[in-house]
Amino acid sequence: MSTLRVNTPPVDVRSIRRSVGARMRPAPSVEHVRHLSALPEVAAAAAVLLGSGVLAARRLSSVEQQVFDAVQVPPNALDAALWLPMQFGSAVAAPAVAVAAWVAWQRWRPAAGALVVGLGAWEAAKLVKSVVERGRPAAVIPGYVARPGAPADGLGFVSGHSTVAFALAAVTAPYLPLPGRVAVYGLATIVGLARIHVGAHLPLDVIGGAALGSLMGWSWNFAVGVPVGRR
Hints:
This protein is mostly helical and 231 residues long. The protein has one domain (35-226): Vanadium-containing Chloroperoxidase, domain 1 (Up-down Bundle). 64% of the residues lie in helices and 2% in strands. The protein has helices spanning 13-24, 38-56, 62-71, 78-86, 93-105, 108-132, 137-140, 160-172, 178-197, 203-224; strands spanning 32-33, 226-227. The chain has a two-stranded antiparallel sheet. Helix 5 runs antiparallel to helix 6 (108-132).
């Protein structure tokens, strides 16, 4: 009776151990630096916030109302489509982005930044609202009726959704490749435009919110540093 022999290559136990060990080791640390060139950007965001706040405290200008009317154009069917992107500027977006940042990068700076700066941006927007005390479009524009579901009461400057969205974009951008950075800032811009489109905010509300969120996000990045080679 003949015996069938199967030649199998010898098992290299040491190479397997090295491979498993490499997978179990934590990712190598990445050097972080603080860019002094970021300070002018922080100052510029603060200037935009201050300037837009001064203008918002005055009477609604014809230019701002024209921009508001232009973004308000139909189709109103966009309202439903814009609901999901607008959640990037909600308070719940901060912990969601924080968890995603930790899972993606295993680094405390973007994860903690998304949580702390994101939630802080929501509260900071409330503080600015109480200082400027500008109403929403339904209270500022004579005869304007807010769309169903859009807030008609309360204060408008600054837009809290825009503040949070740009804060989260600013915190996470240094850890993303160029297409990712374009995507997060593009999403933040969509949030701002959507808030105008649904009638929740006027253009200066969104500009001020974008400036406040960027100011907070860029300040965080400067304080803790960003990966080498990134801004």
